[in-house]
């Protein structure tokens, strides 16, 4: 029999997973091409929350994923890289996907939504980094 979690437990588990992913990526070097691309869009990756980052999967862009920028925008990015690990011309995508995230602080029967949890984790990590 599977254990069913309360809304509060589900929220705590989701928030812990967001923190774990963000902390893991903050502790590792990110590709220079991604850092430069983010900087060109006004985003400092050291203060952003990496939600998902995939590197060099077959038949996929060399670098792609999602992040929450320090100013609260959810971004989907992807780029192909040349042999010198620079973005190939025309391969860079940097799209604001904030409209896809529910930022409701509380929804009856559902609790705090994923987008709002991400923003809370971002604030917490950046407060701890100062």
Give the secondary structure arrangement, pairings included.
Blueprint: H1 7-26, H2 32-40, E1 49-55, E2 63-68, E3 74-79, E4 93-96, H3 114-129
Antiparallel strand pairs: 1-2, 2-3, 3-4
- What's the β-strand tally? 4
Question: What class would the helix/strand composition place it in?
Answer: alpha+beta
Give the % helix: 25-40%
> Ends: how far apart?
45 Å
Poorly predicted runs of 5 or more residues: none
Range of strand content: 15-25%
3D structure, described in words:
The structure is a single chain. By secondary structure, this protein is α+β, with helices and mostly antiparallel strands. Helices cover 35% and strands 18% of the residues. The protein is built from 3 helices and 4 strands. It has helices at residues 7-26, 32-40, 114-129; strands at 49-55, 63-68, 74-79, 93-96. The protein has a 4-stranded antiparallel sheet. A hairpin with a 7-residue loop joins strand 1 and strand 2 (63-68). Helix 1 crosses helix 3 (114-129). The longest helix is centred in the N-terminal third of the chain and has 20 residues, at 7-26. The radius of gyration is 16 Å and the shape is elongated. The N and C termini lie far apart (45 Å). The mean pLDDT is 88.
Summary keywords:
130 residues, alpha+beta, four-stranded antiparallel β-sheet, 3 helices, 4 strands, 18% strand, elongated
Briefly, what is this?
The chain has 130 residues and is of the alpha+beta class.
